[in-house]
Design brief:
Helices cover about 20% and strands about 35% of the residues. It is an alpha/beta fold. The protein folds into 2 domains: about 60 residues, 2,3-Dihydroxybiphenyl 1,2-Dioxygenase, domain 1, CATH 3.10.180; about 50 residues, Roll (2,3-Dihydroxybiphenyl 1,2-Dioxygenase, domain 1). About 15% of the residues are buried.
Length: about 140
């Protein structure tokens, strides 16, 4: 039986830059860090000679696990994932004032697809931008 959702793992190039982004920009808190390497972890994750740093972040009951593999292969340029791709496409954060967060995050140098808009009649007001490593981030304000 599945008890509950635990976390989303995000592969990152620079764990310090990404941890700063998710804590300082997105308001998450660092829960813990660990370093993992060796035969056992390689078998678990299915990566030969796995050597990685982990930073677990939390906001309310949602966790984002940052994974920084030290192997050269993971540092190659990756193609940008698009919103219409198959598989995990974005992380969404609920906010009280999407306009205010849009202006704050935009002033930090992050580029948005468009200004916040109401997505559908009586729907949420949302906008999307790319964070570190081209992870698509949605900020979402409930309306009414």
């Amino acid at each position: 039986m599945i008890n509950s959702f635990l976390h989303v793992g995000v592969g990152v190039r620079d764990i310090e830059e990404s941890a700063r982004f998710y804590t300082e920009v997105m308001g998450m808190k660092e829960e813990y860090r660990s370093h993992n390497e060796g035969e056992k972890i390689s078998r678990i994750v299915g990566v030969e000679n796995a050597d990685l740093d982990v930073c677990m972040l939390i906001k309310d009951s949602v966790r984002v696990e940052l994974l920084a593999y030290k192997s050269a292969k993971t540092h190659e340029a990756q193609s940008h994932i698009n919103q219409d791709a198959i598989g995990l496409t974005h992380l969404a954060f609920l906010v009280d004032d999407v306009e205010k967060e849009y202006e704050r995050i935009k002033a930090l140098g992050y580029q948005f697809n468009a200004p916040p808009m109401i997505a559908r009649e009586n729907g949420p007001k949302i906008t999307y931008f790319r964070g570190p490593d081209n992870v698509i981030i949605e900020i979402y304000q409930k309306m009414g």
